[in-house]
Amino acid sequence: MAKQGAQNDVSSFPQDFMRRKIYSKSTAVMQNEDREKGNITYSRSQDPRSSKIFKFPPGGAAVTKDVAISLRKLLFGGSTYLGNQEWMKSSFEFREPGSALGYGLVSFKNNPRVVIMCVQAYVLKHLLFNKKDFPRESSREKDSLRPYKDRQQQAFGLALADIIWKAGSENSRCTICFPGDQAYLERELNYTPDGLTEKINLFEFQRKEETVSFLVKHVHLFQQESGNGVMLLLYSIILSRGIDRVKEDLNGEYTELLTPVCEATQALMTLLLTGRATPYLHNGVMHTIDEDNVAGVKEHVGLMSRGEIGALVWNRNDESSTQLGSCLKTPSFPIWVIRAENKYGVLFHTRRDLTRDHRAEHRFDLHYFNGCPANHQPTILTLDTRYNKPQDEYRMPVLERVLISKWQGAQVSWNETTPYV
Questions:
Q1: Cα dist. 215→146, 208, 368 in Å?
Q2: Nearest 5°: CA angle at 180, between 201 and 76?
Q3: How far is CA 248 from CA 68, 301, 321, 336, in A?
Q4: For 43-54, how does the pLDDT look when each residue is reduced to its tens digit (9 = 90+)?
Q5: Which of 277, 228, 229, 279 is nearest to 253 (CA)?
Q6: Are 239 and 202 in contact (CB under 8 A)?
Q7: pLDDT for the residue numbered 47
């Protein structure tokens, strides 16, 4: 099985990407020195006084102690210690505008990657299939997968709106969380400040159009370097769904959305994709015998309708991945979030006919993207399902095992790319 060693090796990151990071850090150091001397100047895009970059939207309801404690417990299992910093300090960042991977969001850390890849899937939905959401194409915007900055930001805002509104759709409302300048809670016996949760303001919307407008206007608040963009999204979808309803969704299978080692549970992935935190992957409702239940039967509510975005899951020795139903296997758009041995990515096809016409599945290409900055060229796999030849599944790269869980017997070509998943 191929290793993905290069994926997390900082030394293998593209030099131009690392150079930009090093430059920005060096610039920040010089600016700090100049600021102390009182003679710093800023460009418009860097000015910390700019309302577009650093100012938070006015209004919103202050977070209460009960809500802050409940959010921390639902994610991390407690509110008296600081949340995992890998999660607390993750935000959203695009690849270079107009580049071969300009559609992609970067993921520097493994555990929060599930959130970034779910957002990535919705970004691709808008870039590829909802072009009416964008102004008329310019000559340089012909390639949907090479968006420039304005289109990146618009698609990102629309993706966030899809995810947050979907979580609140049953209540016909959603909640968006942004931090303010002041803390509403102090250290107490049952709460330790983490620098974010005690500062959030809650903005409630009852129409998706208003949600989209608000998010597109303030989308930069999810993107600040070393910011809290991932946590702001998680808090927003939890509160949009409702804390009590999320607990009901979990059905006793989990008590938190993150495992004790801060990996994402299956329920977190389905909450991001479907708006419900079900830990089950099957279609509809199943019943099992439960000796702890007075009635003797436990209800397992899975996926109740076909998703816009799909999912494909494969983990060795995990029976739950075999229960994946057609609601996620065959989504409305040919985009799938992939969980392969707890490594996340996105598979997508650039034309909708792949999920509309079975003849399109005879031979076709799929793009694979996992957000790792070590990858700077597209990965395109070719699948051929016409011959169904015997295969040695044990020696397959993990990603191919995921693929044949949907396209059984498919022959997979990596097209001169060395398998890395």
A1: 22, 10, 27
A2: 65
A3: 19, 10, 22, 26
A4: 333 333 333 445
A5: 279
A6: yes
A7: 36
